[in-house]
Amino acid sequence: MNPKLQWLRNKMNSLDMQGIIISNPINVRYLTNIDAEGTLLLTRKENIYITDARYIEHVHSILTLYDEIIVYDINDVSKDDYENFFLFCENVGFEEYYTTYAEYKELIRKYKINNLVETEHIIEKQRMIKDEEEISNLTKACNITDECFKYILGYIKPGMTEKQIAKEIEDYYNSRTDGVSFDTIVASGENTSMPHAVPTDRKIKEKDIITIDMGCKVNGYCSDMTRTFFVGEILEEVKPIYDLVLKNQVQTMQDFKDGISTRLLAKMVENDFKLHDYDLIHSLGHGVGLEIHEAPYISYKNDTNLKENMVITNEPGIYIPGKFGVRIEDTVQITKFGCVSLTNSDKNYIVI
Amino acid sequence: MNPKLQWLRNKMNSLDMQGIIISNPINVRYLTNIDAEGTLLLTRKENIYITDARYIEHVHSILTLYDEIIVYDINDVSKDDYENFFLFCENVGFEEYYTTYAEYKELIRKYKINNLVETEHIIEKQRMIKDEEEISNLTKACNITDECFKYILGYIKPGMTEKQIAKEIEDYYNSRTDGVSFDTIVASGENTSMPHAVPTDRKIKEKDIITIDMGCKVNGYCSDMTRTFFVGEILEEVKPIYDLVLKNQVQTMQDFKDGISTRLLAKMVENDFKLHDYDLIHSLGHGVGLEIHEAPYISYKNDTNLKENMVITNEPGIYIPGKFGVRIEDTVQITKFGCVSLTNSDKNYIVI
Fold first, then answer.
1. Whole-angstrom distance between the N-terminal and C-terminal Cα of chain A?
2. Is pLDDT at A1 greater than 80 in this prediction?
3. Which of B331, B301, B302, B300 is nearest to B315 (CA)?
4. Which residue of B54, B97, B195 is in closest CB contact with A54?
5. Displacement of CA A131 from its chain's centroid (Å)
6. Taking the CB of residue B346, how many other CB atoms lie within 10 A of it?
7. Which of A308, B23, B138, B176 could serve as a FRET partner for A314 with CA atoms 20 to 30 Å apart?
8. Using one digit for the tens of pLDDT, what is the confidence trace for B229-253?
9. Which of A101, A108, A110, A293 to mutate to test the interface with B (most CBs of B within 10 A)?
10. Quick one: which of A241, A154, A229 has its CA closest to A187?
11. CA A179 → CA A66, A137, A143, distances in Å?
């Protein structure tokens, strides 16, 4: 059996769970490499993947005997089959953060489960710690992101629109990777004041401030990087804010290490911003893996201790409504005594 | 108040519901035009949208006084505010098909709701019937899809890869619309046997069969069209299958009208396929609107009677594993006594 399924079986044992229903396709992919629509069941004795005719060919092409996963076409699963899968299972786990209330009721009805129990993100928690292969994929995605950023700095010229620049980034990624890990943000001038700006037809002009938030996927694993830079010259009013954001980004990088509290990290940046009369209006960072946003979340609302081989973003930002915003973000691997930044583009003032 | 919110308030009255929590962003967009992350609450007296700092500027730019929606920054909503929103509400509705089991428990806790009741897709059911403005947007998206298909037929040459063709379609859409409504499918040769094929580096060659499934969005509204066509000549073994798919697609078009059962429509195609020893392995069609797949679903599993101004797809397909597949799909508006196809590209044998 593949090591991730074996891990899950051991975990289930320790939780007195005799069966589990995995519905979240990202968790299915993490455990099995299957990238399709379907449901993974771990029953007392078998690993079963139920999918439909659209995916059967693809699923068979991914799995090997070694995976020990039996694949069913959903149209061949009878009412009795469903009721037999978890026969004699006292507790069956489900993903309460993924399964809708309507689906929850349907699971109980369809599988005739007596005790459908919450699993409290067990797989997501395991996904926080990346193995060697995952880190290799994340590193590749980050390297290509650095290269793409370098390329795009040379590409941007006054007169181009935000949309045009975003498209060039996406083309760059599409020809080298699985594609973007999220919709590329290219914001210029006053548009930079919106953290989630969508690229517009606004044309880049002299003295503009530009924020680009970009990332791609390699074998399903995401990168995430933001840089804020300038056309021709840096407006004086932007400098102190850029410096404050950068100072906090660098400080956070120095504080990152196995054991440190995510709440504390976010609080420190928040306090320093507040001292200067600014707010941190979004979280300081988030885990990155098969999803662009995944656990752990680096925010005052959430307390996790960072652990070796977590991969997270570090992205403080300050936004002055209607005027401009500055955000600087790297994707970072936590190590025993510190961290390694996987994105490595320049963070000092960049003027193009 | 805008007419869609007014409709919902009337509906709530008739269901003895004094409050409702709308979490699905597509439903929020349908009711308010807001395209952001947040929650819409209809309380006894007020319409409230709770979002976070990232979207506040955008939301204010969308809403007018006429909408009568009060916008809150989630950070300014206190524990007491939450508990007061639905004070004296006997029944509060929630979206049980969207809300996870964990969120459901959290809603009860946070809002102190006594009776959180299922709403059985009330908004999705209303969304099935399109108004004039929605049909205008859908028609535009379909027209651009016809134009794009015409363009792409002239563009494709042997030696090009599936990925390259998909990219050309996406570029066409990106420069004229809000972008694609789903990942474009370009499948060639044996890849056409997978209904959900992802474009590969396979190069188009003489005598190839090609299936393209494509669509774009205009003001959020989607188009969806598939054509199967040929390079140089049509293989003899494909013809009878193409003819059978086309016959059923045309027959379905003739059967579409206000009042007809979706199950019956699917059954008729299925039976005709079975008579020829083939199966209909996916649904015959689906609603199209703000989502590329939405109610109603045209399948034997689902019984709805079609109604005037529903917009749905008609997409029979036959797939011979490892060999080839044929699918022909249009987006169609149901009328009182028949239907109007919104996509109108040629469906007879197309040879490029």
1. 53
2. no
3. B331
4. B195
5. 16
6. 12
7. B23
8. 999 999 999 999 999 999 999 999 9
9. A101
10. A229
11. 30, 14, 14
Whether B347 and B252 have beta carbons less than 8 Å apart is answered as: no
What is the nearest CA distance from A278 to chain B, expressed in angstroms? 13
Say which DSSP state A140 is in. H
**pLDDT digit string (tens) for A128-181?**
999 999 999 999 999 999 999 999 999 999 999 999 999 999 999 999 999 999
Q: What is the mean pLDDT of residues B257-274?
A: 96
Strand, helix or coil at A229?
A: strand
What pLDDT is attached to residue B64?
A: 85
Assign B10 to helix, strand or coil: helix
Give, rounded to a whole angstrom, the gap between the first and last alpha carbons of chain B: 53
Contact residues for A3 (Cβ-Cβ < 8 A; gap 6+)? none
CB B260 within 8 A of CB B335: no
pLDDT tens per residue across span A23-71: 999 999 999 999 999 999 999 999 999 999 888 988 999 898 888 999 9
Average pLDDT over residues B54-73: 90
Of A57, A100, A104, the CB nearest to B98: A100
Question: What would the DSSP string read from start to end of B232-251?
Answer: SS--TTTHHHHHHHHHHHHH
Buried b (16+ CB within 10 A) or exposed e, B145-178: bbebbeebbeebeeeebbbbbbbbbbebbbeebb
Interface test with A, best of B101, B185, B217 (most A CBs within 10 A): B101
Query: Cα Rg for chain A, rounded, in angstroms?
Result: 23
Identify whether B296 is preceded by a cis peptide bond (ω within 30 of 0): yes
Task: Count the Cβ atoms, other than its own, within 10 Å of residue B301.
Answer: 9
| Contact (Cβ atoms closer than 8 angstroms) between residue B225 and residue B315 | no
HSE of A288, CA atoms in CB hemisphere, 13 A: 33
Assess contact for B308 and B315: CB atoms under 8 A: no
At residue B234, the pLDDT reads 96
Residue numbers of A between 154 and 173 with CB closer than 8 Å to B = 163, 167, 171
Which residue type, as a one-letter code, is found at position A215? G
Calpha distance A341→A328 (Å, rounded): 13
